[in-house]
Protein: LacI family transcriptional regulator
Organism: Providencia stuartii
Amino acid sequence: MSTVNSKDVARLANVSQSTVSLVFSGRYHGRVSDKTREKILSVAKELGYHPNINAQVLRSGNSKTIAFIVPDIQQPYFAKVVHAAEIFATKSGYSLILLDSYANKQWHEHLISLFQSKLISGGIIYSCDKKNIELLRYYREKLIFIESDDEKNNDICLEVKKAIESIFYIASKMKRFRVGSFRIDLPRQHFLTRHELFDQQFNSLENPEKSKHIVYSSFNLAQSTENAEILLQQKPNIVFCDDDILAGAIYRAAKHLNIHIPNDVAVIGFNDTDLCSYLNPELSTVQIPTQYIGEIAIKMLLEKISNNPQIIEKQFVTLKVVTRGSTQA
């Protein structure tokens, strides 16, 4: 039995072979009607036709694949960002390769290898340090950076400073000045930035009774609960957490120490994951628009690697502080 090819699809769909190629290469936007595209896809499915991806890459130099690098895919926040990115990429005719920069310390070498082998068309990197930005400088025109530690090379910036100003406003309104900071001990730039901005905002507080209590922890349940107890024993009356998961550990520790949330200590998380609604009282937190970040990152990258790239403007993402029961004393 002979192999089905694009000529067979074109003949049965009553279109030209070039039209079939446009559809399967993802270059049909504005050139092929939705009705014609659907007809071609229907005929291809009926015939069992699948385009030769390797041949397409050789002809076009575009693998239709994007690498997405995140610090820790196990964390719910990054999983949501990647999920949104994958949905948008798929709609645009692209697929994703996922790299975890925490689990794979040589991720930058892997990424360079993917570029050199033409297995990817571009990449999106979340929380990249200056050293790796420099190592990847030859591929800068095919990369999008989110929350990197080099402001000049940042393509998507989260307005963390405004969010931290808002949570300190909440603290002042509640007259809570014994401030706890429950921090993740991972050397990731987005966390380091939060810590720096937190310290700056605390230093600007004009209250003689203010005090700052800092404890670091991993995401491990037992360790984070133990460290949360250490923090609460210092008697802060409001605690800011790097992540909603760490806030969950504060809840566990507070229950063990018979400390009431929010009467004794108010708690604010970061990311607005589903966990916030499971806690009692529900957790106040900083909400990050994960779907928007995932989608805009893909959109910006596709514009960068298109045949007629435009100047890509830096995107500033507004964060929202969502107040719930944990700050409603």
